[in-house]
Design goal:
Elements lengths: L7 E5 L4 H4 L2 H11 L2 E9 L10 H20 L8 E8 L1 H11 L4 E5 L14 H8 L4 E4 L1 H6 L8 E5 L4 H4 L2 H11 L2 E8 L7 H10 L11 E8 L2 H11 L4 E6 L12 H8 L4 E5 L1
Parallel strand pairs: 1-2, 1-4, 2-3, 4-5, 6-7, 6-9, 7-8, 9-10
Antiparallel strand pairs: 5-10
Length: 281
């Protein structure tokens, strides 16, 4: 198995505390992989809701964004880092759908507002819309996840949930790559519909263990876990109980603009105590 690497990372910011929570993780991953780091801000185009903005207002908005970008970088771990800034105007999905392939971005990092509870999930949130347009994995970080991330500022325990389908296995190389680069323990999780028959559990453990390729067994520290329950709840509980620093999960691109709020990956992103890396399935 060829493990992927991150070489060009895009941190998306609106200069809020929520996006600030994603900065340490973007820096850490960039350092681990020796990746180039880009910081992007999109000035929302008010033309869709109000009268078209004139040239004077556009220049003021550009100047304000540049000032905010300088302050954002200077007041965070980005200070002194070799980052390239991107400031563009328009709809965020349109701008980033263009920027990501143009800059050959292979990882997007974005802060979320960390709303919890299914009824409070924000359909069409920036993190969700970015996942829908980005051809690469998206690392989502809520303020809660940013605060709970390990004091050592590294991934020590990575949770990888799988149902053994081809879609879910697309996230496995990324989980292995991150585990190797961070020297982290990889926890392989399967949420089963039934574990009542005595022969089922050993079979799931055998299948989970078999996911680690032979060439990775010399360096990969891993454990296997098979549990029952609602898939999203089981993943969230396992992440908490296993003290995971990161969840790596595959997810479908939503049909249309938004993703159904009850999808497993969406609930995990919205409610996890740790950062979540979603890989397009």
């Amino acid at each position: 198995m060829i493990l992927p690497s991150f070489t060009r990372i895009l941190l998306v910011t609106d200069f809020s505390d929520c996006s600030g929570a994603a900065v340490p993780l973007a820096c850490a991953v960039a350092h681990d992989y020796g990746a180039a780091l880009f910081v992007a801000h999109v000035i929302r185009d008010a033309g869709s809701t109000t009268a078209a903005t004139g040239p004077d207002e556009a220049r003021k908005a550009q100047s304000a964004a540049e000032a905010h970008m300088q302050q954002f970088i200077a007041s965070s771990r980005l200070a002194g880092e070799p980052v390239e800034t991107i400031i563009e105007r328009g709809a965020i999905t349109d701008v980033l759908a263009r920027v990501i392939p143009a800059r050959s971005i292979d990882l997007v990092v974005v802060g979320t507002h960390g709303r919890s509870g299914v009824n409070k999930l924000l359909l069409g949130s920036v993190a969700q819309r970015l996942f829908n347009v980005a051809p690469c994995p998206v690392l989502s970080v809520s303020p809660r996840a940013g605060k709970s991330w390990g004091a050592a500022r590294k991934f020590a325990r990575i949770l990888y949930p799988t149902d053994f389908s081809g879609d879910s296995l697309k996230a496995l190389p990324y989980a292995l790559s991150l585990a190797r680069i961070a020297d982290a323990e990889l926890i392989l999780l399967h949420v089963a519909a039934d574990l009542s028959r005595h022969e089922i559990l050993p079979e799931y453990y055998r299948r989970l263990n078999a996911l680690i390729p032979p060439e990775a067994r010399a360096w990969c520290k891993f454990d296997a876990l098979a549990i029952t329950g609602d898939r999203a709840e089981a993943i969230l509980n396992a992440a908490w109980e296993q003290n995971a620093d990161l969840v790596v999960i595959s997810a479908h691109r939503a049909a249309g603009t938004f993703e159904a709020p009850l999808s497993t990956a969406y609930q995990v992103v919205a409610r996890a105590h740790c950062p979540v890396l979603r890989v397009r399935s």
